Amino acid sequence: MRAPSSTITAHTNSTYRIAPSRIHRSSTSLPSPPSTKLLMQTHATLLRSGEIHDAIIAGKLISNIANSHPSNLPYALTFLSHPTNIPINAFAWNSLIRGFAHSASPENSISLYRRMLADGFFPNNYTYPFLLKASSYLEDRRVGLSLHATIIRRGLDGMDPFIQTSLINFHAVLVSVDTARQLFDESLVRDVTSWNALIKGYVACGQHMNAIYMFQAMQDCGPICGDEITMLSVVSACAHLGALEMGRWVHSYIERNRLVLNLNLGTALINMYAKCGEIDSAKSLFWEMQEKDVRTWSVMINGLAIHGHAKESLVLFAEMQRFGVVPDSVTITALLIACSHGGMVERGRTIFSRMRMDYGIEPTIEHYGCIVGLLGRAGKLDEALALIRRSSLKPDIVLWGSLLVDCMVHKNIGMGEIVVKEILKLDPSNAGAHVFLSNMYATSGKWDVVQEVRNFMKEQMIHKPPGSSLIEVNGVVHEFLSGDSSHPQFDGIYKMLDEICRLVSLKGHKPLVGGVSFDINDEDREVCLSQHSEKLAVAFGLISTNPGSVIRIIKNLRICRDCHAVMKLVSEAFGRIIIVRDCNRFHHFSKGSCSCGDYW
DNA sequence: GGAACTGTAA
Fold first, then answer.
1. How far is CA A556 from CA A25, A163, A342, A480, A517, in A?
2. Same domain, A430 and A502
3. How far apart are CA A488 and CA A559, in angstroms?
4. Nucleotides of B under 7 A from a protein CB
5. What domain range is A133 assigned to?
6. At which of A422, A442, A459 does a domain end?
7. Is the domain of A518 the same as that of A552?
8. A444 lies in a domain?
9. Which residue has the higher pLDDT, A445 or A187?
């Protein structure tokens, strides 16, 4: 079990409420950047008046052009080779570097920096944040590391909060979040942006719990208060963790601190509610939002999809188009997920085959992942394999892995072997491929081959990542691993687990041991099965929450057949709604049945 | 003149 040593108490008594008066209406009231035409007119006027030869005036013009829109960058660059000797100062160089740092070709910022040095200009404390920003988008982290070395050599590290935050961000993105943390700890000045850079860094590398801890530490340190950008990261962390109580608390924090529920934050909150199983809260917030962009719609369409509301998801997509919002690649992914979980094979096929024609969106590996999942789940394995073979994209491990799971579910050993070979070509020590190989042989009773695979894995030290389930009780997130006995309430949990086994067996449940291969006899295999992480989590939920309350579990893998059957029976026997989010979708168990209709 | 900014396959 991993639980916060100290936790943010979720204010479970505060009701979930939206304050419409504080919902951000629109960004149209913001002044729009000067148009290209206007910039050109100003340029012409300054040329005529001769004021263009004033370095400060020229610098302002270059800055306005370079930062108006990325498409104006070539125009801004013409000033560097202008025949009329327009003076260029450090401010103008910085503006150009800044413009490219936020463009699709950030490497140009670095070229400009080199040119700036060659022309005898010294970068100042404004230059480095832009350069570090550009470096964080490059593949080669040596560029940013070399800049960091220059910053140290010039004695600028730890002196300027902007440089420090940029360094934290660069390290979090391209080096490691640990070095980012070190830089943060060493900073003499911390402001909300440096906290934000670090919190975002933890979210970006998947250390969501650490992101929450940092947010908590930020409050403990005072007097700095989180702003809208802090909340984006914190809400995103809650969504990943499935930490609903924490997410609700954060929502109320946003309201208490009168933060603006703007487009981005609203979208993040909708996503959080959907990913935490509260699809109705997600829906109400979605319709409350005055301004919605393609992300807001996609988040909602995806939310409905993972809850198995396929038809509603497609209806919302139609609605989105009526509102004139143009779908993007992620929207199409969400639609395919909806079809996949709703078993709408034909509709999914059509969307996939027409996406280029209908929406001008080129299929990516993610779309292939969805369609292979859709076909595989429906047992159309040959079609899925043919599709992968026909694709011009190079299939990755995720794509093959998805097909492999379906080969196992549909007991297609022949194709499973083909797929395993493909996976092992990409990653010879892939744990999943070895485990599935072993499982496939176990299913067909080839125990000598099972032993061979097992020995090989032992020799090569190949371990399958353990199943993990998270459950949040009173604002504390508890993690259970398969066969875990480290929880302080171990005794109570295992007593409850025995009780569950007794009750489900009275209902006629027979353990579905097909997915367990590493244990020789059936009894051991049943024990292994009975200690799957989601069963430990549900047992803990039953003993630590009020009778009748909803139990929410987040599982890192796909829920197994046996756990699925047991959850249905537990929901009936204990009169509980159990909501399990596995790595694919939500399962709402109630009164002995599941919202997925046993199709997942 | 500057740093931090939400959603996708398994």
1. 37, 38, 21, 11, 20
2. no
3. 25
4. 1-10
5. 35-189
6. A459
7. yes
8. yes
9. A187
